[in-house]
Amino acid sequence: MGVRTAVQVLSTPVTAALRYMKDQAGHTCDLKFANVGPTVEFMSNMYRWFVLMDVSNCQQHIHQNNPDTKEFADPEDGRLHWLELIFLEYVENLKEASSQENFLSKETYHALVFTTVSNVQCIRFLLNECNFQFVLTRKFSSDPIESFFGFLRRTAGCNDIMDVRSALCGVEKMLKTGIVAASQKSNVSSSASFCSSRGVTVAQVDGSTATLSVNVKLAQQALRELCMSTRSFLPTPDMAAIALVAGYISRVVSEKTVCDNCVSLVQKPKGDFGMDGLIAHQDRGGLFYPTKQLIRVLHALKRYVDIMLSDRKSLRKPLEECMKHSVTVVTNLPVLLCDQCDDSHRRSFVELICKKFMKPLLSNHALDITDRNAVAKFYQRKPLSRKVLKL
To answer: Is residue 324 a part of any domain in this protein?
Structure first.
């Protein structure tokens, strides 16, 4: 697993989702989430450690509204105190309370403590002795060295214990070529995309059009019913996720339109609404809270897109097809009504909401389908070792 992927697992959105499910444990989530507190504490501490070890510039704390990403300019910075005392004490207490099998490995524990102590001492040394104005911890990264050793191990093939000769051979190869070239005699067949020159018959086109028209009618009917429904929603994780996306859409509406009435239809002040928990757990002062009416419309659009994608092979341009049929329905419904009676103004308002919600929805669906249907590489012959070099 790469470092970036590991940090994403420990990131604030993940811990916010766990905190939300802890709050809803026994109601809309499983009762076992009530005991997720220590896990969230561990993830939060490790994520803050990664953030403090990856301070890269002097402006990101302004854009992210996160004081942990600010450059180190004071030897007595509170973040250094947290790294040197609080974090190391937490890791030590975790070691004492856990069994050897359930704790970090000896190498990982030693590297974690060594990196923390050395970085704190280096920062203070540069600020006190070398008179540095500020320090960026990303400059302490050893990624180039690790990448170099990783390249040498890959050039050695199945040989995990390298000698001097194999290391020199790898260095010479890197200096001469600069790239890793795949051998023509490797046992991995090259992947080739299949392209058919056969034309589509008229019967197939007619059948696809008929199927699309049926799906459009079903999707539009579901969109009308869900938008006009008066049923209250339970604060489930799915609805909380839609509310989180609705908050970003309300920000887009406030930036793209000058109508205060339209902004008031999609944005509200912070409250105690149950589905806002996912937003509140990661809000540092810059997130927006959507109205119940906007969440209801987006929930209906989500169901509408699911029905439209049930026969995705008939959709040549999914975004255009979904936009064309959904905007007409929502425009004619008494939802998100602005005081201005201009038809063009209302249509542009509804198009902005539908497009900003459907575009990432369709992109995620396409990425999921692509990952599931990825073409596998088949071996032309049985490999000599189970350790296969990926080139």
So the answer is: yes
